[in-house]
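Model it.
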Amino acid sequence: MRVQICAVGRARTGPERALTEDYLARFARTGRPLSLGPAQLIEVEDKKGGGIAGEAVLLGRAVPDGALICVLDERGRRFSSPEFAAQLTYWRDQGRGDLAFVIGGADGLDPALRASADAALSFGAMVWPHMLVRAMLAEQLYRAASILTNGPYHRA
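Modeled.
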């Protein structure tokens, strides 16, 4: 199952981008034997200033046809890392070829996009900077693959 992280905004060179790229590369190596990944970051920018509705259109175009859509939202479901690994396995075993994680911009996600998603994931009740959420998601993808392969990275 291919994984896309569809996110509003372009990450500049810096620690968040470096962390995201590092964990996505680790996920690609670790997830391959599990038929998970690789993961691709797809960045969109609303240059016309359409607000969250305009961002939703661009995010919708970035999501592959037929993909399972999981939005990142503070109202979403909270998982432990082992639970998230099990959820990835469940989604993979449903036979969908693509999984798209959708991260909104500074103003969040359009309510219609959020309502149309298959799932919603939360990293807690706090609101996180959307550039940092990319790195956190990439790390959790790698951690999930490590859990599923009984690797040493995750220590319960």
